[in-house]
Amino acid sequence: MIETPIELQEEMPEDMLQRKPKFRVSWQFVFAGVMFLFMYLPILVLTVYSFNASAYSASWEGFTFEWYLKLLTDGRVLRALQNSLTVAFCAVFLSAILGTLMAVGLARYRFPGKSLYIGVSYLPMIIPDIAIAVATLVFLAAVHIRLSVWTIVAAHIVFCLAYIALVVATRLADLDPHLEEAALDLGATPVEAFFKVLLPQLMPGIISGCLLAFVLSMDDFLIASFTSGSGATTLPLEIFSRIRTGVKPDINALSALLIIGSGAIAFAGEFLARKSERKKFQ
């Protein structure tokens, strides 16, 4: 005779029936929590102290929005923000065009020295920023180019180009090459096939790469410090010049806004990447 689950439950001791499964915390969960706390606790403290009413960050004296309102009337900060946005938009725009063409060319064509060219193209992601900064400064001095905002743009294109080309190349590897061939068989020219078939499919990757390059350009300090001229101060350079006399709440507020902006751009890039992945599997 086979016992039913109800009969088995009736035969079990009362203490076993009342016993509930214990919640066990694994060491991986604890380790991940400690690491997140280690990474994001300083950002949280900085954000909290950006609302401190005290003129110094040593002690808490109350809650205020004064330092955020002060940034709106600070001429030096606004000029630095304008320079940073000019550099970032120009560098990303030019890098998006060149990086997309480079990724398509490397994926579609064969030529002598292609492997060497690929390795050299992605070197800016591996080489330390200090090496890029010094090399750019030496080159500009050798050709007698005066340092300005546009020299920062030229230096930022060096690393923005590599990041955008890598993201676009990754997107290009997942596409079906027969779609472009079908467009050519139906009478489209190579230029029409690129703009009407290939480019729309690459657009999510191009946008993701541009968002990544934009954040890197806005946050860059080392390369900009070597390639900026007088009056070409970017936002990271302005922050560094002010913290020499001590960290004040207005710097905390400015840093908090930069962190929030960078995080929003990163989330937007991740959202676009996931959206394109869902469309691909539909």
From TrEMBL:
Membrane topology of the entry: Multi-pass membrane protein
Transmembrane segments: 29-51, 85-107, 119-143, 149-172, 193-216, 251-273
Subcellular localization: Cell membrane
Database matches in InterPro entries: Bact_Polyamine_Transport, MetI-like, MetI-like_sf
Domain ABC transmembrane type-1, residue spans: 81-269
Chief subcellular location: membrane
Record's keyword terms, sorted: Cell membrane, Membrane, Transmembrane, Transmembrane helix, Transport
Pfam families registered for this protein in UniProt: BPD_transp_1
A GO biological-process term: transmembrane transport
One GO cellular component, as annotated: plasma membrane
SUPFAM superfamilies referenced in this protein's UniProt entry, alphabetically: MetI-like
Family from the record: Belongs to the binding-protein-dependent transport system permease family. CysTW subfamily.
Name of the protein in question: ABC transporter permease
